[in-house]
């Protein structure tokens, strides 16, 4: 009886972790904001040449979500979905800059010490 109980408690945990580890990653928000939403790049992404390796021959592309769709109807239904609207809302916030990341890590201007304090010589 203990053996049956033990096998039921951890069912498919390994598969969940493996799926998250090997899932195809999409572009990050800062990459989309800085590169894809530029009007020149956006026009190039929306009018891509035929590519037989991508879904829908690369003709139905959502720039905000960086996803390809099989048909125009699938793309239009995606535009009405909650996932797309959340992504658009997240893209309206400003992107993180390198300076902001360095400040968060303690490497910015506020976190720097002078050489006098580091050496201990006053």
From TrEMBL:
List the biased-composition ranges (Basic residues). 1-11
Entries under PANTHER family matching the protein: ZINC FINGER PROTEIN 593 (PTHR46095)
Keyword entries, A-Z? Cytoplasm, Metal-binding, Nucleus, Ribosome biogenesis, Zinc, Zinc-finger
Q: Which InterPro entries match?
A: C2H2-ZF_Maturation_Protein, Znf_C2H2_jaz, Znf_C2H2_sf, Znf_C2H2_type
Q: Where is this region: Disordered?
A: 1-24
Q: What is this protein called?
A: C2H2-type domain-containing protein
GO MF annotation, one: ribonucleoprotein complex binding
Q: Where in the cell is it found?
A: Cytoplasm; Nucleus
What family is it from?
Answer: Belongs to the ZNF593/BUD20 C2H2-type zinc-finger protein family.
Q: Outline the extent of the C2H2-type domain.
A: 60-84
Q: Its GO CC terms? A: cytoplasm; nucleus
Q: What is its main location?
A: cytoplasm
Source species, please? Scleroderma citrinum Foug A
Q: One of this protein's GO BP terms? A: ribosome biogenesis
